[in-house]
Amino acid sequence: MLLCVAVAIVRMKDLLAVVMLLGVYGLLSASFFVTMDAVDVAFTEASVGAGISTVLMLTTIAMTGRNESAPPYKHLLALVLVVMTGALLVYGTMDMPYFGFAEAPANLHVAPRYIQDSMAEVGVPNLVTAVLASYRGFDTFGEVMVIFTAGLGVLALLGLAKPPKDGDAEIDLLHDKLHEQHLVLRVVCKMLIPFILLFALYVQFHGDFGPGGGFQAGVIFAAAIILYGMLFGLSTARRVINQPLVLLLSGIGAMLYGMVGVVSMLKGGDFLDYSVLLSDPIAGQHLGILLIELGVGITVASVMVIIFFNFAGRIEYLQRKRSRDKQG
Amino acid sequence: MIVGLYNYWIVVILMMIGFYIVIAQGNLIKKIAGLIIFQTSVFIFYISIGKVDGATAPILADQFSQYSNPLPHVLILTAIVVGIATTALGLALIVRIKEAYGSIEEDEIQEKDNQEC
Q1: Cα separation of B4 and B8, whole Å?
Q2: In sequence order, which residues have a C-beta less than 8 Å from that of residue A51 and are 6 or more positions away?
Q3: pLDDT tens string A231-247
Q4: For chain B, what are the domain ranges?
Q5: What ipTM goes with this model?
Q6: Which of A113, A245, B74, B99 has the most other CB atoms within 10 Å of its CB?
């Protein structure tokens, strides 16, 4: 299935179809991850691959046009190169352990320790959360910083979408009229959005025990806000969501994560060693994981919201520029 | 049996499809789509390595004794979110390129660059 969709993506000329197929592709790979027992990953991929990435691609082609004009060139050479690389890689897999083999080297290194000792050391049933937040807390900190930096990069490239001034009420009116057409969608989503937000919070704080955690919760939370922005118009969404506050929150989330590390250092432990946070090491671990997951959730959600608002704001900016050019 | 390696072959094929799009197609958005496919193939590679036959999802419970390897899950979970953040950065660059050059086709951009020199 995945292969069929991927091949279709290569052949498609219409970029809108490509984007839609990528959404299907994301959902398919999410269901594949469920069959591979990676429920947390499937969670993330479903909301990112089928949700947010599709929206972002759509806003981009709204600005750049949906048709691919240039004919593919260097066809044969590229194909030969790709087939050769593929053949070499397949040759390389001959030495790999078989699929699902429990004694494979990858499953013998640190995984047994995580599975056997983490209940005593960290005390969190969801092993993925335990490894993500505690054993590999340092790594996750780096990832959060990368996300934060990417958010800043988008901000720098597309500029802060400034709230429209009164003179542009005409365009706002046009937008609102457009959005009024989707009455059914608006009513249904208005009912759904609170539950999506609630679900995001559940995923956030239940991540220790079931599949979930800061990354997934952040993405789901942002998806709810993006849905609102798409259906009720950007100007309405701006009134509800304070842009500078979101910007501040993305920094606060990253800082919260770092601060937990600094506090544990001040308490005499290593950076991000939560056991020293409270007198009981297990309770300390729980507190630390809760706090850093909260930091991750805040950062991811606000960065996603920032990215969406900047993309959508850019469209609005271009439209306004075009209408001003016409008038002038 | 050599068929036991099929998961790697699927990964290789997907990866090569993504690679082909990146090198052979001129449209920048198509290239991003290729990168996403490439990226997903790496995710699938990691996750399929962590799969253990007869094991269950790595959430501890009394009735299970065998779990899949949680480490690849952690790595990929964060990689997905980082991936969307960097993809957004790439798309933002494309939007600016379109504004500056009026095109998102690689050869047209190249031509305009040459004219300016």
Answers
A1: 9
A2: A26, A219, A223
A3: 877 777 888 888 888 88
A4: 3-51+68-116
A5: 0.85
A6: B74
Structure tokens at A326: 């016409």
pLDDT of residue A165: 54
For residue B10, what are its two tokens? 């699927």
Could you say which of B8, B79, B93 has the minimum Cβ distance to residue A96?
A: B8
Phi/psi of residue A192, each to 5°?
-80, -35
pTM of the model as a whole: 0.85
- Kindly state the tokens that stand for A34: 């469920």
Determine the structural domain holding residue A40 and report its residue range. 1-68
Report the candidate in A296, A215, A273 with the shortest Cα–Cα distance to residue B73: A215
Binary contact (B60, A157; C-beta < 8 A): no
pLDDT in tens, B62-96: 778 778 888 888 889 888 988 998 999 999 999 88
Is residue A205 less than 8 Å (CB to CB) from chain B?
no
> Could A38 and B88 be called an inter-chain contact, meaning their C-beta atoms sit closer than 8 Å?
no
Residues A176, A180, A183: CA angle, nearest 5 degrees: 155
A291 near B CB under 8 A: no
8 Å CB contact of A131 and B80: no
By the CB < 8 Å criterion, does B62 face chain A?
A: no
Q: Cβ contacts (< 8 Å) between B83 and chain A: which residues?
A: 48
Architecture of domain B3-51+68-116: Orthogonal Bundle (1.10)
